[in-house]
Amino acid sequence: MSKTVMVVDDSASVRQVVGLALRGAGYTVIEGVDGVDALSKLKGQKIHLIISDVNMPNMDGITFVTEVKKLPLYKFTPVIMLTTESQEGKKLQGQAAGARAWVVKPFQPAQMLAAVSKLILP
């Protein structure tokens, strides 16, 4: 059975690039356009890893991760932040919220897939 990765980004082109790379590596992909949309799609299904942007409308990535970690089912789901933000302060906020890795855009799909395979839940 393939593992499921949720990709949350307000940019359709980023979701497409990330989704293609993940599907190519054999993962099932669920997409969210922002934190609010992504939270509504969690619905108790098993998500093995979440990749989220930081700057999004409606609910930003850090708030989204904070909310996900409050849900017992997703408390231990690893999160990778995929963002144009490279400031230390933002990274620390992300870590405090529960993000395990920080990938800065523009990114190499191979670099992202390496982070995914390292962190994804069994």
Automatic annotation (TrEMBL):
PROSITE patterns linked = RESPONSE_REGULATORY
Question: Keyword set for this entry?
Answer: Phosphoprotein
Pfam families attached here?
Response_reg (PF00072)
Occurrences of domain Response regulatory (ranges)? 4-120
> What GO terms describe the biological role, i.e. biological process, of this protein?
phosphorelay signal transduction system
Would the keyword Phosphoprotein turn up in this protein's UniProt record?
yes
Task: Give the 4-aspartylphosphate positions (modified residues).
Answer: D53
Gene3D superfamilies with a match to the protein in the record? 3.40.50.2300
What the entry lists under InterPro entries is as follows: Bact_response_regulator (IPR050595), CheY-like_superfamily (IPR011006), Sig_transdc_resp-reg_receiver (IPR001789)
Record-given protein name = Response regulator
